[in-house]
């Protein structure tokens, strides 16, 4: 096979003005293969380090990121268009995850002893968590440091090297991340960033990396899964969502309104776990709607949040608003006129039929559907009706956990919003069209390892059955044992 190189480049633009910001190379098969080969040798060195040495390296990297937070925030603002304080909050969450992964990998990936069972009681049984080798991370643009860090930090902490393909909308912060780790470990390519568009991501999936950690849309995840299937490459798929907020009759409605508004509108609604639909009990619905619509008046596109990062999303947002209104929905705040590319002002819709695309599909804009329900059973059934199952939020003083446990979702915040993303010790991920596999927490660390079972004898067993010299007497002892152990 001849590997092809590419001299092509692509440019990034300011979402608000469209002005070109920077140009980056489009990595082709040659560049991807070269990066993976360098990562392979780095992985050999890194996996042979003790867990304490890895912790020290990753914490040094974390300190460097913190000391350069201004630089990183400026890049995120320029490429993605979000307000600077949002960029800083995002970096804060990313370094919190990196620190947690660095400090906890040793503990959660330590070999564990298992009971060998009565039949094999002469053996000792141990499970080790071995690094996979090289992990390919493919990232989206909406949280260009926080989201990939959920894979990068955990993969590195587990002893792997990483090749990262950031979104073509936000490559700069990805390149910056790899460069900063290179300052800490100049002699080994622990983290490399390859830039490019879909084709570069596809090449990474076709390469010899040992696993792909993908974050992006459900549509792309299916293509990624198909490519990975050709080489039986394992995949974590962190995809889109249509998160529901359930508000019970006993909820603190004031807190629910304030937090739900932020969960729906912040980052211009471009959050995989954004609040997109609310099911509010009819007893408190009027008060909830009064509070959230009043507060929405002070939320402004251009100051509270930035422009839509991806120009093509504007058409999808407009089509969902149109569909809701055409099917009988009511605009409580804004409406079709709120879409003024590249900005979209807050839109709150109500009485939207459940078959409208505004309810069934990910909008990824600053829009929110609020529908009244007669009971929590109805709210739960409607929340669970979609193929998506990423996050959810439940507001109830007495029944929060009870409602949460009935939701078909990977993560639930009770009397709070989005909180699970900021707790590094809990896994992050979804079910159904929201994907599979987990990042964050001990589960996220283990995703980047494989389990190796090691069994060895502690003493010679009187019953030898892994030999052709097995006797009739041994067979009788085994038959008797089975009856005693399982037959009663
Ligand atoms: P996207 O699917 O368009 O792109 C994601 C990445 O995949 C990009 O880097 C892109 O270049 C790459 N890519 C595109 N085609 C590819 C292919 N055929 N093979 C390999 N890689 C390919 O998504 P996006 O627009 O960048 O991000 C927004 C989406 O991400 C939303 O749906 C959002 O909900 C989701 N998201 C999910 C999470 C989560 O953790 N579940 C977090 C953030 C964003």
TrEMBL record:
Q: Does the keyword Oxidoreductase apply?
A: yes
Which species does this protein come from?
A: freshwater metagenome
> What is this protein identified as?
Unannotated protein
Going by the UniProt record, its keywords in alphabetical order are: Oxidoreductase
Q: By its UniProt entry, which SUPFAM superfamilies does this protein fall under?
A: ALDH-like (SSF53720)
Q: What biological-process terms (Gene Ontology) are attached?
A: aldehyde metabolic process
User: Where do the Aldehyde dehydrogenase domain residues begin and end?
Assistant: 5-454
Single annotated GO MF: oxidoreductase activity, acting on the aldehyde or oxo group of donors, NAD or NADP as acceptor
Similarity field: Belongs to the aldehyde dehydrogenase family.
């Amino acid at each position: 096979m001849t590997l092809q190189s590419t001299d092509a480049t692509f440019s990034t633009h300011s979402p608000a003005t469209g002005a070109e910001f920077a140009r980056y190379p489009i990595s082709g098969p040659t560049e991807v293969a070269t990066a993976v080969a360098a990562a392979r040798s780095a992985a050999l060195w890194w996996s042979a380090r003790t867990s304490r040495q890895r912790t020290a390296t990753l914490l040094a990297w974390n300190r460097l990121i913190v000391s350069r937070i201004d630089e990183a925030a400026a890049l995120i603002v320029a490429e993605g268009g979000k307000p600077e304080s949002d960029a800083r909050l995002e970096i804060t969450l990313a370094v919190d995850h990196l620190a947690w992964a660095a400090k906890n990998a040793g503990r959660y990936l330590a070999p564990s002893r298992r009971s060998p069972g009565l039949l094999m009681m002469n053996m000792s049984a141990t499970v080790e968590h071995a690094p996979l080798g090289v992990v390919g991370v493919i990232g989206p643009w909406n949280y260009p440091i926080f989201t990939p860090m959920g894979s990068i930090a955990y993969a590195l902490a587990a002893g792997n090297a990483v090749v990262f393909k950031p979104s073509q909308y936000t490559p700069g912060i990805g390149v910056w991340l790899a460069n900063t780790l290179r300052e800490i470990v100049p002699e080994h390519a622990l983290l490399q960033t390859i830039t490019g568009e879909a084709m570069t991501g596809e090449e990474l999936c076709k390469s010899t990396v040992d696993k792909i950690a993908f974050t992006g849309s459900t549509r792309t995840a299916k293509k990624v899964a198909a490519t990975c299937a050709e080489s039986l490459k394992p995949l974590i798929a962190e995809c889109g969502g249509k998160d529901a907020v359930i508000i019970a009759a006993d909820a603190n409605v004031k807190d629910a309104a304030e937090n739900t508004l932020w969960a729906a509108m912040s980052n211009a609604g471009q959050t995989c776990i954004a609040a997109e639909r609310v099911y509010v009990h009819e007893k408190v619905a009027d008060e909830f709607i009064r509070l959230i619509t009043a507060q929405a008046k002070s939320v402004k596109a251009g100051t509270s949040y930035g422009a839509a990062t991806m120009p093509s999303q504007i058409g999808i947002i407009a089509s969902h608003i149109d569909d809701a209104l055409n099917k009988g929905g009511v605009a409580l705040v804004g409406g079709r006129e709120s879409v003024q590319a590249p900005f979209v002002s807050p839109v709150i819709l109500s009485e939207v039929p459940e078959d409208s695309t505004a309810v069934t599909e990910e909008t990824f804009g600053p829009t929110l559907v609020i529908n009244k329900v007669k009971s929590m059973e109805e709210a739960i059934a409607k929340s669970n009706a979609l193929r998506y199952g990423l996050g959810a939020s439940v507001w109830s003083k007495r029944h929060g956990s009870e409602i949460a446990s009935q939701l078909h979702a990977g993560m639930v915040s009770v009397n709070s919003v989005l909180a699970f993303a900021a707790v590094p010790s809990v896994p992050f991920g979804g079910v159904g069209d929201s994907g599979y596999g987990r990042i964050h927490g001990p589960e996220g660390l283990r995703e980047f390892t494989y389990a190796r079972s090691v069994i060895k004898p502690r003493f010679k067993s009187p019953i030898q059955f892994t030999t052709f010299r097995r006797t009739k007497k041994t067979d009788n002892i085994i038959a008797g044992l089975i009856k005693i152990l399982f037959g009663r």
